[in-house]
Amino acid sequence: YDCYAEALKIAESLENPDRHAAVLNKLGIVMREMREFDRALAFFQEYLAKKQEDLISQGTALNNIGMIHLDKAEFKEAKGVLERARSINERSQNPQALSNTLGNMGLACYREGNLDEAIEYYHRSLEMSQKREDASGYWKDLLNLGLAYSEKGELDTAFRYYTQAADVSQGVGDVIGEKQALIHLAQCAKR
After folding, report:
1. Cα distance between residue 89 and residue 83, in whole Å
2. Which single residue of 17, 126, 148, 176 could bond 141 by disulfide (Cβ 3.0 to 4.6 Å)?
3. SS3 161
């Protein structure tokens, strides 16, 4: 955190608004990782305020703010902010950001217990990842679908998605993704 706080001071002294905003976003990410949600939220909100003319940055900021609300189990707030991020990401025609936001909306629905709605969002994100040939996003979407179907008790479907997630992550050399998929695959097989 200290190095980013120092970077923020330097960015402010240089009077470089883009650099200053970028550091604010990074500080928000660091604070979220440290589970300092209120501080993270303040940094993301300040970043958003400085990037009012930049749709891509607005979408990023709103996505990050939505994830803070999700971390705090504030599902209604999370979904509202993520919906704003989705709308902005559609207008900015940023398919990667839109796919990420759809996946996060799925996660919000999943954590809230709305599994059918989560599955819809995960499928939309999966389609976008597939079109963009984003293997990392693709295996994560497959894994999320597996989790949702497993939670619904549809183990055959979950098993299929976990298998696909393991295959895709292995195919691109993503060891962490492959490990996650295989763990869930084993747990599903035991049930």
Report:
1. 10
2. 126
3. helix
